[in-house]
Protein backbone atom coordinates (compact mmCIF):
# COMPACT_ATOMS: atom_id res chain seq x y z
CA UNK A 1 0.00 0.00 0.00
CA UNK A 2 1.33 3.44 -0.93
CA UNK A 3 -0.01 6.87 0.01
CA UNK A 4 0.84 10.23 -1.53
CA UNK A 5 4.16 11.67 -0.41
CA UNK A 6 2.53 14.73 1.24
CA UNK A 7 0.79 12.41 3.70
CA UNK A 8 3.62 9.91 3.96
CA UNK A 9 4.22 6.62 2.22
CA UNK A 10 4.34 2.97 3.18
CA UNK A 11 5.97 0.62 0.67
CA UNK A 12 6.53 -3.12 0.87
CA UNK A 13 8.84 -5.32 -1.20
CA UNK A 14 9.34 -9.08 -0.88
CA UNK A 15 12.39 -11.02 -2.04
CA UNK A 16 13.82 -14.36 -0.92
CA UNK A 17 11.37 -14.70 2.00
CA UNK A 18 12.34 -11.26 3.29
CA UNK A 19 9.77 -8.47 3.31
CA UNK A 20 11.06 -4.91 3.55
CA UNK A 21 8.64 -2.25 4.77
CA UNK A 22 9.72 1.36 4.35
CA UNK A 23 7.85 4.34 5.76
CA UNK A 24 8.45 7.95 4.86
CA UNK A 25 7.06 11.38 5.64
CA UNK A 26 8.45 14.81 4.72
CA UNK A 27 8.23 15.91 8.38
CA UNK A 28 11.18 13.86 9.68
CA UNK A 29 9.38 10.56 9.08
CA UNK A 30 6.65 11.40 11.58
CA UNK A 31 3.31 9.60 11.50
CA UNK A 32 -0.16 10.76 10.60
CA UNK A 33 -3.03 8.50 11.66
CA UNK A 34 -3.70 7.23 8.12
CA UNK A 35 -0.05 6.24 7.81
CA UNK A 36 -0.16 4.40 11.14
CA UNK A 37 -3.17 2.48 9.86
CA UNK A 38 -1.39 1.64 6.61
CA UNK A 39 1.68 0.34 8.43
CA UNK A 40 -0.51 -1.71 10.77
CA UNK A 41 -2.28 -3.21 7.76
CA UNK A 42 1.08 -4.07 6.17
CA UNK A 43 2.13 -6.09 9.21
CA UNK A 44 -1.24 -7.83 9.34
CA UNK A 45 -1.01 -8.80 5.67
CA UNK A 46 2.56 -10.08 5.99
CA UNK A 47 1.56 -12.08 9.06
CA UNK A 48 -0.54 -14.27 6.79
CA UNK A 49 1.95 -14.49 3.91
CA UNK A 50 3.54 -17.98 3.79
CA UNK A 51 6.28 -16.66 1.50
CA UNK A 52 7.66 -14.34 4.18
CA UNK A 53 9.82 -15.43 7.13
CA UNK A 54 11.46 -12.15 8.11
CA UNK A 55 10.37 -8.51 7.97
CA UNK A 56 12.79 -5.58 7.81
CA UNK A 57 11.31 -2.28 8.97
CA UNK A 58 13.10 0.87 7.86
CA UNK A 59 12.44 4.52 7.07
CA UNK A 60 13.46 6.67 4.14
CA UNK A 61 16.35 9.09 3.91
CA UNK A 62 19.47 9.86 5.90
CA UNK A 63 17.98 12.10 8.60
CA UNK A 64 15.67 11.03 11.40
CA UNK A 65 14.45 7.46 11.65
CA UNK A 66 11.13 8.61 13.10
CA UNK A 67 9.91 11.81 14.77
CA UNK A 68 6.90 10.10 16.31
CA UNK A 69 3.43 11.62 16.11
CA UNK A 70 2.60 14.32 13.58
CA UNK A 71 2.46 17.66 15.39
CA UNK A 72 0.15 18.96 12.66
CA UNK A 73 -2.42 16.28 13.47
CA UNK A 74 -2.00 16.75 17.22
CA UNK A 75 -2.76 20.46 16.86
CA UNK A 76 -5.86 19.60 14.83
CA UNK A 77 -7.37 17.54 17.66
CA UNK A 78 -10.46 19.29 19.09
CA UNK A 79 -12.21 16.55 21.09
CA UNK A 80 -11.13 13.76 23.45
CA UNK A 81 -12.51 11.24 20.96
CA UNK A 82 -10.31 12.60 18.17
CA UNK A 83 -7.32 12.49 20.50
CA UNK A 84 -8.02 8.92 21.52
CA UNK A 85 -8.47 7.94 17.89
CA UNK A 86 -5.10 9.40 16.93
CA UNK A 87 -3.11 7.82 19.75
CA UNK A 88 -4.86 4.48 19.31
CA UNK A 89 -3.10 4.31 15.95
CA UNK A 90 0.18 3.66 17.77
CA UNK A 91 -1.58 1.13 20.00
CA UNK A 92 -2.88 -0.84 17.03
CA UNK A 93 0.52 -0.71 15.30
CA UNK A 94 2.48 -1.97 18.32
CA UNK A 95 -0.11 -4.70 18.86
CA UNK A 96 0.17 -5.78 15.21
CA UNK A 97 3.96 -5.94 15.45
CA UNK A 98 3.80 -7.93 18.67
CA UNK A 99 1.21 -10.34 17.24
CA UNK A 100 3.00 -10.75 13.90
CA UNK A 101 4.42 -14.30 13.77
CA UNK A 102 7.37 -13.15 11.65
CA UNK A 103 10.64 -11.92 13.12
CA UNK A 104 10.87 -8.14 12.69
CA UNK A 105 14.29 -6.54 12.17
CA UNK A 106 14.48 -2.81 12.78
CA UNK A 107 16.95 -0.82 10.65
CA UNK A 108 17.51 2.37 12.65
CA UNK A 109 19.66 4.80 10.68
CA UNK A 110 18.95 8.00 12.63
CA UNK A 111 17.33 9.66 15.61
CA UNK A 112 13.98 8.55 17.02
CA UNK A 113 11.57 10.48 19.21
CA UNK A 114 8.42 9.51 21.10
CA UNK A 115 6.32 7.04 19.16
CA UNK A 116 9.35 6.24 17.03
CA UNK A 117 11.02 4.77 20.13
CA UNK A 118 7.91 2.66 20.71
CA UNK A 119 8.10 1.30 17.18
CA UNK A 120 11.76 0.39 17.69
CA UNK A 121 10.86 -1.38 20.95
CA UNK A 122 8.21 -3.42 19.13
CA UNK A 123 10.85 -4.88 16.80
CA UNK A 124 12.42 -8.22 17.70
CA UNK A 125 16.00 -7.42 16.66
CA UNK A 126 17.38 -3.96 15.97
CA UNK A 127 20.43 -2.72 14.13
CA UNK A 128 21.33 0.96 14.43
CA UNK A 129 24.01 3.48 13.55
CA UNK A 130 25.97 5.60 16.00
CA UNK A 131 23.75 8.52 14.91
CA UNK A 132 20.59 6.88 16.24
CA UNK A 133 20.02 8.79 19.48
CA UNK A 134 16.62 8.50 21.16
CA UNK A 135 14.36 10.73 23.23
CA UNK A 136 10.94 10.56 24.86
CA UNK A 137 9.89 14.21 24.62
CA UNK A 138 6.20 13.79 25.47
CA UNK A 139 6.35 15.30 28.96
CA UNK A 140 7.81 18.48 27.49
CA UNK A 141 4.62 19.02 25.49
CA UNK A 142 2.26 18.21 28.33
CA UNK A 143 1.46 14.56 27.64
CA UNK A 144 3.41 11.36 28.26
CA UNK A 145 4.61 8.19 26.45
CA UNK A 146 1.62 6.33 27.84
CA UNK A 147 0.68 4.22 24.82
CA UNK A 148 4.19 3.06 23.97
CA UNK A 149 5.25 2.45 27.59
CA UNK A 150 4.43 -1.29 27.68
CA UNK A 151 6.63 -2.01 24.66
CA UNK A 152 9.49 0.23 25.78
CA UNK A 153 9.45 -1.07 29.36
CA UNK A 154 9.35 -4.65 28.07
CA UNK A 155 12.52 -3.98 26.11
CA UNK A 156 14.61 -1.76 28.42
CA UNK A 157 12.97 -2.10 31.86
CA UNK A 158 11.00 0.29 34.05
CA UNK A 159 14.03 2.11 35.47
CA UNK A 160 15.44 3.08 32.08
CA UNK A 161 11.94 3.92 30.86
CA UNK A 162 11.44 6.23 33.83
CA UNK A 163 14.79 7.93 33.20
CA UNK A 164 13.88 8.66 29.58
CA UNK A 165 10.39 9.85 30.44
CA UNK A 166 11.49 12.20 33.22
CA UNK A 167 14.28 13.69 31.07
CA UNK A 168 12.20 14.75 28.05
CA UNK A 169 14.77 17.33 26.97
CA UNK A 170 17.69 14.88 26.98
CA UNK A 171 18.88 12.75 24.09
CA UNK A 172 20.04 9.28 25.07
CA UNK A 173 23.00 8.08 23.03
CA UNK A 174 22.93 5.03 20.75
CA UNK A 175 25.45 3.47 23.10
CA UNK A 176 23.01 3.94 25.99
CA UNK A 177 20.22 2.39 23.92
CA UNK A 178 22.51 -0.53 23.09
CA UNK A 179 23.45 -1.06 26.73
CA UNK A 180 19.79 -1.02 27.79
CA UNK A 181 18.81 -3.56 25.14
CA UNK A 182 16.82 -1.36 22.76
CA UNK A 183 19.47 -1.83 20.06
CA UNK A 184 20.94 -5.26 19.36
CA UNK A 185 23.81 -4.06 17.16
CA UNK A 186 25.55 -0.72 16.56
CA UNK A 187 27.30 0.27 13.31
CA UNK A 188 29.39 3.29 12.37
CA UNK A 189 27.54 4.33 9.24
CA UNK A 190 24.67 3.48 6.91
CA UNK A 191 26.67 1.34 4.46
CA UNK A 192 27.87 -0.95 7.26
CA UNK A 193 24.35 -0.92 8.73
CA UNK A 194 22.82 -1.96 5.42
CA UNK A 195 25.32 -4.77 5.00
CA UNK A 196 24.63 -6.06 8.51
CA UNK A 197 20.85 -5.87 8.02
CA UNK A 198 21.07 -7.77 4.73
CA UNK A 199 23.29 -10.45 6.23
CA UNK A 200 21.16 -10.92 9.35
CA UNK A 201 17.90 -10.99 7.40
CA UNK A 202 19.27 -13.56 4.95
CA UNK A 203 20.59 -15.73 7.76
CA UNK A 204 17.26 -15.65 9.62
CA UNK A 205 15.34 -16.38 6.42
CA UNK A 206 17.41 -19.55 5.98
CA UNK A 207 16.15 -20.99 9.27
CA UNK A 208 13.07 -23.13 9.83
CA UNK A 209 10.12 -20.68 9.66
CA UNK A 210 8.15 -22.75 12.16
CA UNK A 211 10.99 -22.43 14.65
CA UNK A 212 11.07 -18.67 14.10
CA UNK A 213 7.34 -18.46 14.76
CA UNK A 214 7.67 -20.36 18.02
CA UNK A 215 10.62 -18.19 19.02
CA UNK A 216 8.56 -15.06 18.37
CA UNK A 217 5.95 -16.32 20.83
CA UNK A 218 8.63 -16.84 23.47
CA UNK A 219 10.13 -13.38 22.92
CA UNK A 220 6.78 -11.75 23.70
CA UNK A 221 5.62 -14.15 26.41
CA UNK A 222 4.06 -12.55 29.49
CA UNK A 223 2.82 -9.46 27.63
CA UNK A 224 -0.94 -10.13 27.92
CA UNK A 225 -3.81 -7.74 27.26
CA UNK A 226 -1.61 -4.98 25.89
CA UNK A 227 -4.23 -3.82 23.42
CA UNK A 228 -6.78 -2.93 26.08
CA UNK A 229 -4.10 -1.30 28.22
CA UNK A 230 -2.74 0.77 25.34
CA UNK A 231 -6.23 1.89 24.31
CA UNK A 232 -6.85 3.04 27.88
CA UNK A 233 -3.58 4.96 27.70
CA UNK A 234 -4.67 6.45 24.35
CA UNK A 235 -7.72 7.86 26.12
CA UNK A 236 -5.48 9.59 28.67
CA UNK A 237 -3.27 11.06 25.94
CA UNK A 238 -6.33 12.12 23.97
CA UNK A 239 -7.55 14.16 26.91
CA UNK A 240 -4.19 15.71 27.77
CA UNK A 241 -3.48 16.81 24.21
CA UNK A 242 -6.43 19.24 24.48
CA UNK A 243 -4.85 21.19 27.34
CA UNK A 244 -3.68 24.72 26.69
CA UNK A 245 -0.25 23.72 28.00
CA UNK A 246 0.07 21.13 25.23
CA UNK A 247 -1.32 23.38 22.49
CA UNK A 248 1.15 26.12 23.40
CA UNK A 249 4.06 23.68 23.58
CA UNK A 250 3.22 22.16 20.20
CA UNK A 251 3.12 25.60 18.61
CA UNK A 252 6.57 26.31 20.02
CA UNK A 253 7.93 23.02 18.66
CA UNK A 254 6.60 23.92 15.21
CA UNK A 255 8.67 27.11 15.10
From TrEMBL:
Give the family per the record: Belongs to the enoyl-CoA hydratase/isomerase family.
- UniProt GO molecular function: catalytic activity
- One matching Pfam family is ECH_1
Species for this entry: Flavobacterium crassostreae
Taxonomically, what lineage is the organism? Answer: Bacteria, Pseudomonadati, Bacteroidota, Flavobacteriia, Flavobacteriales
Among InterPro entries, the record links this protein to:
ClpP/crotonase-like_dom_sf (IPR029045), Enoyl-CoA_hydra/iso (IPR001753), Enoyl-CoA_Hydratase/Isomerase (IPR051683)
Q: What is this protein called?
A: Enoyl-CoA hydratase
